[in-house]
Amino acid sequence: MMEEGRLCQWSVFRSILAIVQWWGFNVTVIIMNKWIFQKLEFQFPLSVSCIHFICSAIGAFVVIKVLKLKPLIIVESEDRWKRIFPMSFVFCINIVLGNVSLRYIPVSFMQTIKSFTPATTVFLQWLVWRKYFDWRIWASLVPIVGGILLTSMTELSFNMLGFCAALFGCLATSTKTILAESLLHGFKFDSINTVYYMAPFATMILAVPALLLEGAGVLHWVQTCPTLLSSLVIIFGSGVMAFCLNFSIFYVIHSTTAVTFNVAGNLKVAVAVTCSWLIFRNPISIMNAVGCTVTLVGCTFYGYIRHLLSQQQPGTPRTPRTPRNRIELAPLINDKLDDKV
């Protein structure tokens, strides 16, 4: 009994440790990126994204090939271009839109809009795949959508470009998720192998546009920046933190249940919003805070309903419109992999 008690205590401690370090890396990446755009005046989201991808590609190579902490999942060259490349393209758009939104709107607003992702994913799968969803899934989206609308209408630092970038970022995340279900079918990718294959493609896709659109601006910033060395350390440090975030997701996935992960994910948004406000002091109205809270509660409720439905057997009656085949019963998304940077 003592051994079982110790194992249980260690399991709980490991879960808490995994969640805390995941929160730490995630919030650090968000705050560092905002600091780069706002305080360092390095307002080049394509270049920042490219640096993140380069650091992530190097980090994944070191973990898999040098340190051998994770086994490499072999993917044939043809599959890399047919399956991995389309995913990398959407993956790239997703990260760029996130960085663009961070440049123009506060972290609190961006994180709240990002919580809209479950709604866009459900809608896209219903629209494109004609996939069935239990009525409780649709009901759980109501507070998410309502909270987003309330937050947007009362946001004191509202910027249309930043808002659109964040909103289209949700669509890109949902598209990436849907593509992953079809293109990566049969590949049991973990977060590190995902980065190992996608980051080089994403770097290749983004390098030319970043050079053409932002090259002159970056060169001018390098020539005029009064604290060049420390600024470059912060910029490349954010890339290292971005890779560490991917690595941390692996431990969180294996240390927590789906429900715990969902709740921790929503609490992470609250932590990010609080830390951002303490550092940048962006104005937040009472109704704006209420809208953010309603959205996070809706996301938690959505995750809880997803968990309940996943526990039901295929033959268990759900509603008068019980699905007839396995495709309709397939899980919506792997909620544990939606935070990859």
From TrEMBL:
<keyword id="KW-1133">Transmembrane helix</keyword>
<dbReference type="GO" id="GO:0015780">
    <property type="term" value="P:nucleotide-sugar transmembrane transport"/>
</dbReference>
<dbReference type="Pfam" id="PF03151">
    <property type="entry name" value="TPT"/>
</dbReference>
<dbReference type="InterPro" id="IPR004853">
    <property type="entry name" value="Sugar_P_trans_dom"/>
</dbReference>
<feature type="transmembrane region" description="Helical">
    <location>
        <begin position="286"/>
        <end position="305"/>
    </location>
</feature>
<feature type="transmembrane region" description="Helical">
    <location>
        <begin position="12"/>
        <end position="32"/>
    </location>
</feature>
<keyword id="KW-0812">Transmembrane</keyword>
<feature type="transmembrane region" description="Helical">
    <location>
        <begin position="160"/>
        <end position="184"/>
    </location>
</feature>
<dbReference type="InterPro" id="IPR050186">
    <property type="entry name" value="TPT_transporter"/>
</dbReference>
<feature type="transmembrane region" description="Helical">
    <location>
        <begin position="196"/>
        <end position="222"/>
    </location>
</feature>
<comment type="similarity">
    <text>Belongs to the TPT transporter family. TPT (TC 2.A.7.9) subfamily.</text>
</comment>
<feature type="transmembrane region" description="Helical">
    <location>
        <begin position="84"/>
        <end position="102"/>
    </location>
</feature>
<keyword id="KW-0813">Transport</keyword>
<keyword id="KW-0762">Sugar transport</keyword>
<feature type="transmembrane region" description="Helical">
    <location>
        <begin position="228"/>
        <end position="252"/>
    </location>
</feature>
<feature type="domain" description="Sugar phosphate transporter">
    <location>
        <begin position="17"/>
        <end position="302"/>
    </location>
</feature>
<feature type="transmembrane region" description="Helical">
    <location>
        <begin position="259"/>
        <end position="280"/>
    </location>
</feature>
<dbReference type="GO" id="GO:0016020">
    <property type="term" value="C:membrane"/>
</dbReference>
<feature type="transmembrane region" description="Helical">
    <location>
        <begin position="44"/>
        <end position="64"/>
    </location>
</feature>
<protein>
    <recommendedName>
        <fullName>Sugar phosphate transporter domain-containing protein</fullName>
    </recommendedName>
</protein>
<keyword id="KW-0472">Membrane</keyword>
<dbReference type="InterPro" id="IPR037185">
    <property type="entry name" value="EmrE-like"/>
</dbReference>
<feature type="transmembrane region" description="Helical">
    <location>
        <begin position="135"/>
        <end position="154"/>
    </location>
</feature>
